[in-house]
Amino acid sequence: MTDAERLTTSDVFNPGQFPRYTYRSREVEETAVLKWWRDRGQILVVHGPSKTGKTVLMQKLLDDTDPIWIDGHGLESTDVMWARIADQLGLFTNVSRGSGEGDERSTNLEIKAGVSSTGIATNPTYTETVEKSLTYSVDRPVELVVKEALQLTERPLVIDDIHFVSTEAQKQIIQALKPLIFGNTKVPGRRVVFVSIGNRVINVLTNLDDMRDRMLPLPMQYWDQTDLEQIAKDGFVKLRFVDADGSLSSKLAGQSFGSPHLMQQLCRELCSGEPNNLLHEAPDPTELEPPISWETFFKAQLLDDVGRWITKLAKGPDPRGTKRDLTPTKSGRMVDAYQLLLLVMASTGPRLELTKDEIQVALNEVSNKVPPFKSVPTQTLSNLSLIAATKLLDKLPSLADLRARRDAGFDPYAQADLQPVLEYRDTGATSSLTITDPFFAFYLAWGLEDALDAINATSGAPTEDIAPAVDPQVEEDEWGNLV
To answer: What are the distances in angstroms from CA 207 to CA 41, 167, 201?
Structure first.
């Protein structure tokens, strides 16, 4: 078998693409989707953390239905939505009519259905034969044309990455689709799917009249160790690579932080990199070798854009020339509160969600302060969350900017075009810190300390305004000028 005839390692382990050879069935989620398909009448909202297989799940389950798939990026209004659907369906809005000998006019809005038994034709057609006639043209509203077409097809409408759509535009889109979802006396409701990071669109649906019971939330969770290991095992079998005791699969799964996307990447790089150098399916079973250094291997997978987020968060708000106090760590570093909290996150694994109590415990395990800290710096955690809710290339906000946003009730998760890498929800005793991007967690595990050393070596001791405490005496006693 020649190289051209063999599968490549990248064919089998393909992060960012549909996993043709390593798809893992998810019984709970698949059952929910099939029930939604039968029942109709609800918007299916598939939501969850980044890179957990939401889009892959819907591609797999809806493949036979030929879905109308549009992307949330740039979906600024219902007009844009109708235009994108019309483009996918090959629709037109201009109709010419006339009379005369030899005239022939036919206008068909026949759209391919997702159910093979319907017998509906494949494409919209418009034919015209004119020998002698007077003709005139009519431009029909694209919204009307699209709605008529959607009523003639069982193809579901999928709006992917709807979290990129502004809240106001989401409301308009939901209201525009509402009659199609309900159906009428002639046709049952059409099927609509929203795919989203986070649950912001669920909040929009809940607050709209008559929509609370017209949605079916389907949460997608981070994957467990067993499912991640199975990705490696299935792929290795397909490529005739051998991981006899499963230790390599287990090692990679343990560093994938619940993300099948990251697991695919690590599997590909293990097989194709040193010392294995296996770029194609092996002609005979071939034993895989571990890297010479796991640390070197994992550090080689760090993403530059995630590293820039680490740098932005580690610097904290714009210093404006003033200094913030430092605290010693047990590793021998001197860091400010922002860098300390990143080290605290990393020290937990990092875990993808931490309660306030867990942060408190980790804080005193990382720091070398005597006496130990008595509280968690909630203002600094809030500042980190607000900085994460900016765009990567935006300049660092000042501490005054962050205070103003917080005082105004700014909700970073109600903004379009933002995918914060972490989120702190200050809800008193139930406050929690969530890492929302597995690649950010991976960078905390393998690249944070090097990044902090590089930042502090080039910029000197971190500097920052001093944040006022809610209770100045308590803040002074417990944190001094650290925040």
So the answer is: 18, 11, 10
C-alpha–C-alpha distance, residues 431 and 442, integer Å: 23
Q: Whole-angstrom Cα distance, residue 111 to residue 147?
A: 12
Check residue 480 and give its pLDDT: 37
The reported pLDDT for the residue numbered 409 is 74
* pLDDT above 70: residue 267: yes
Q: 414: which 2 tokens? A: 């109600």
- Decide if pLDDT at 98 tops 80: no
Q: Say what the pTM is.
A: 0.82
- Per the CB < 8 A criterion, the answer to whether 163 and 419 are in contact is yes
User: Residue 259 is which amino acid?
Assistant: S
DSSP states of 451-477: HHHHHHHHH-S---PPPPPSSHHHHHH
Tell me the helix, strand and coil percentages in the chain, rounded to 5: 45, 15, 40
Side chain identity at residue 47, one-letter code: H
Task: Name the helix (H) or strand (E) containing 242.
Answer: strand 241-242
Instruction: Look at residues 43, 63, 81 and name the one whose alpha carbon lies nearest to residue 191.
Output: 43
Residue 195, SS3 per DSSP: strand
The answer to whether 469 and 476 have CB atoms below 8 angstroms apart is yes
Residues in the chain: 483
The pLDDT of 85-95, averaged and rounded, is 81
Q: What sign for the dihedral angle of Cα 43, 44, 49, 53?
A: negative
3-state SS track over 391-445: CCCCCCCEHHHHHHHHHCCCCHHHCCCCCCCEEEECCHHHCEEEECCHHHHHHHH
Beta-ladder partners of 8: 280
d(CA 285, CA 238) in angstroms, rounded, equals: 10
Contact residues for 105 (Cβ-Cβ < 8 A; gap 6+): 96, 97, 98, 128
> What does the alpha-carbon distance between residue 351 and residue 346 come to, in Å, rounded to a whole number?
8
User: Residue 138 has what pLDDT?
Assistant: 52
How far apart CA 19 and CA 32 sit, in angstroms, is 21
| pLDDT tens-digit map of 102-161 | 444 444 444 333 333 333 333 443 344 444 445 444 577 889 989 999 999 999 999 999
- Helices and strands: H and E segment counts in the chain: 19, 16
Cβ neighbours of residue 374 closer than 8 Å, sequence gap 6 or more = 477, 478
Mark 198-210 as b/e (b = at least 16 C-beta within 10 Å).
bbbbbebbeebee
